[in-house]
Amino acid sequence: MTEKKTRVLISKLGLDGHDRGAKLVAHALKEAGIKVFYQGIRHTINEVVDKAIQEQVEFIGMSFLAGDHMTIVPKVINELKQKQAGNIKIFIGGIILKEQIPELKSMGVQQVFLPGTPLKEIADYVKTHAAKQDL
Amino acid sequence: MTEIDKISAARSEWETTILKEQLAKAPESHEVFTTESGIPVKRLYTPADVAGIDYLSDIGFPGEFPYTRGVYPTMYRGRHWTMRMYAGFGTAEDTNKRFRYLLQGGMRGLSMAFDLPTQLGYDSDDPLAEGSVGRVGVAVDTLADMEIIFKGIPLDQISTSMTINAPATVLLAMYIALGEKQGVAAKKLTGTTQNDILKEFIARGTYIFPPGPSMKLTMDVVEYCFKHLPKWNTLSITGYHIREAGADAVQELAFTLANAIAYIEAAQQRGLDVDDFASRLSYSLGCHRDLFEEVAKFRASRRLFARIMRERFNAKDPASLLFRTFSGSCGSTLVAQQPMNNTVRIAMHALMGILGGHQAIHTASWDEGHALPSEEASKLSLRTQQILAHESGLTNTIDPLAGSYYVESLTSEIETRVTEYLRQIDAQGGMLKAIENGYVGAEIQRSSIRLQQAIDAGEKVIVGVNQYTEEEETSHADQYLHIDQDIDAQQRKKLQMVKTGRDNAAVTKSLKELSVAIDGNENLIPPMIEAVKCYATIGEICNLMRVRWGEYKDPSVL
Asked: What class is the B55-469 domain?
């Protein structure tokens, strides 16, 4: 029996092109044995949601550095629900204020990683929250 | 026995006696010491390490080839660098207020940040712009916004540096039109358009069109300014963003120079002589963490560039040989944890910049790990530069680190390593090829991973991040700049009013003429000036080019 890897989509939505963090996270997850899809920069909400459904990912990780997360994140979550994919877990990272975390969590974001988070912590989060592989 | 032989012999003697004894008692903290970029650093540098450097031909005098010691003969003894704070956010009115505030505070040059929709040629009412209007810079849809931003600021009394790339032609056209309205002739305008599209493909991501047409637009600025804006810096060839994308110091400089070479070749292909335009090119590098490495990088940059210009391009005018720089705090060195500590890092950035001999210096603000700089934080950064300029004695003599065995040795080492990169890029057929085939991206990603792994493993200490951390940090949230969430709507409304009030027949006519010029592969700045004067929007102008040239898509390889 082949082992089924956890599948994660790493995305940059909106117009911001700073992808250093997103690429580092994608690389670290890959190194940790996770199947990673990385879309590159400037994707629309629809493109991200469609890709997530098409690749049957369990998580979407999104990176925000331009202050547009409070506008975009709820729309992604809403779009996922509309397309019957509300079970996909969402984690985000970037320039996000600690004070915004409760609101983001109430929107349905599972985890928020602030600047300076060691990459291992993100890989550990994915592994801990991934569904059991043998189910 | 030469003097160097004597020193080497004495060093061996010291190593086998005094040093050996000490190491036996107490080993050093690390087996190997390196710079931030991984260049090995010796325990001690002596005259033996600089024996291969020829003072007159490698170091020389300020204002003279190869400019290692500085581009001007008197440097800061003549006048200080320009203290340029990068600003621009929210509405045009907000930015105008900030600009006036900074000018009253003694700043001489403005540096303008644009929001992402503007940088990507979208109007504020474009669906793709939602959530980004006025966030990371000011929103400019039409000339009307520029009129507000510069209200009460005569363009002949300031210089304006615009961080604009893909639509640089449009913003320059607006600035020229604005000058005309103020009664300031184009030939008197001073400032800079960043206009460095290659680094957008490499690092920053705000490209619109494919590389070919993008280069054409870059060159339209170079060519137009050569003819009409002799004091305008047409291109700021920027290593800063390459560094921020994860490159090390050597890669930052190598890729910046490789981009410069590509632009110069493109301008020559337009029929310009190197001495026609090279003096209007300026450069920008980052001030990172490692003080000596950064200073050595800045010194090496001037020497390498002067040699490239003379040997490769056969430049004759001494002004063509000058690597004039605007350098700034690398935001990635600032951290969100215990953010007040960033003030110390920012002072170090200013120190590196001053010791590095830059013409303009930007200092970031301590709160940038959380938000755009607040007014107070921005003022503290400007004051930091003023304190160093006036109180520290740093400016009394030129290039004060010259002659340090370590700094001279490191300057030469960086030059050697950069030269090797340039050779590899030439071997691939030049920088455009090296970008397109993924070489440049892969090199940066390699360094980015190396640095992050060193930080995550705790080998590289970042105070407050992986050492000296605090469980409960003092919150400074009340001090951060808050951008009105309603700004999208405000800006859309303003745009609507401009569209209603303008002469739409004139807009249609001017856009038609622009369209003809695009098809005819003409220089697009003249028809753009006409279009912006009738208040055509940046989106309307860029869409014409999108239709004609298509858009570039990130190949998104990991």
From this structure: alpha beta
